[in-house]
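**Protein record**
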Amino acid sequence: MFTKKDTPSYVVKEYPQASDLFKKYDINFCCKGDETIENQCVNKDLNVEEVIDELNKFYEVWKEDEGRSIGLAIRSLEELIDEVIIKHDQLTEELSVLQQYVMRINQVHGQEQPHLQKLENLYFQLLEQMNDHIEAESFLFSLIKEEREEEKLSLATRKKKLQESLGSIGQLLKEIREVTNDYVAPAYACGTYRVTYDRLSRLEEKTLEYMMIEQDGFFTQI
């Protein structure tokens, strides 16, 4: 659990999504990230206890999610569909938020570091691919749940297209990893730059986990 004596820079290293909460309260986790949360709250006339409480509540939910995927291979089709839908919501939210960070570091540092423009291009390709994939998969779920006889023959075709889509998503993740040097930010990078790379790394991890649930769980049962 985090305390008011912790610094924002420390918190985002342990829990990258905390950057969203810090942005909400205008708490600097970048250039002044080594100033304690308490001091920054005092300077901004914020209730530090309320901020810490909100931070830790979000952190507990985030930690709880870490263990959700255990035993997915032995779950029923209905349970797997429910789990994939949860992943849809989580990934859609993170993809939407993270695009602002990717755009920001390119806007600030892209002129001197042209690889950030390539990163932004790859990211928006990934965003488009993921949105299309999730939409197609959600429609497939509706066919399965409705059990419409006339649509059963199309399940195999839709499944194949989704598997091909996963291949494209996996390739984009590989290219993003390469362009970010395995998500290792330069030594001189600011806090926002580092948080962006940390969250990209986490996004890759969660996306690959989602893909595993599909390939080893959901797709084996349809």
User: Anything to note?
Assistant: Residues 21 and 216 are 35 Å apart (CA to CA). The two ends are 42 Å apart (CA to CA).
